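Researcher: We are triaging several targets before committing to wet-lab work. For this one, the compound of interest is zinc ion. I'm pasting the protein sequence and the ligand SMILES. What I need is the predicted three-dimensional arrangement of the protein with the ligand bound, expressed as structure tokens, so it can go straight into our comparison scripts without reformatting.
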Amino acid sequence: MTIRSDQRNMIEAFQQYAPVNVTELAESLGLKVWEDDELPVGVSGKICLDSEFGGSSGYSVIVRASDPFVRRRFTVAHEIAHFLLHKDKIGASLTDDGMYRSRNLSTWEEVEANQLAADILMPMPLISRYINSVGADPATLAALFKVSEQAMRIRLKLPQ
Ligand SMILES: [Zn+2]
């Protein structure tokens, strides 16, 4: 499934500099983002229909409040990806475990969501620009993009 061009343009509007403001991007796409410290054990995040507190699309994204900041950012991007790619399969609610697996979706669809989440947080043209100014050290780039060093190393195709 492809992303609508207006949604693609909105993502690009948030990719002019690092770090990508993923919460504001979510809200621009109609998703209200909440942090919850009472999600069940093993749940990293969810996206659900929320007529009372949801964004303009009617959906809320909920992330585990106690997760590290960079992981919460990745979770928000992952749930955005489900909204853009798999909206028809979310139903009332889609819950991702600690490995970003859900009951609603296949492994391949979860891979697809992780790929789009990485594209959102670490757009290659922006990474290239920062490499030109600060160099290619993955820890430095991860700090600038506010992602985990592991995520940046995957992005740069470096050994883990
Ligand atoms: Zn997922």
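Researcher: Any quick observations?
Model: Residues 78, 82, 96, 100, 102, 110, 113 surround zinc ion (CB under 6 Å).
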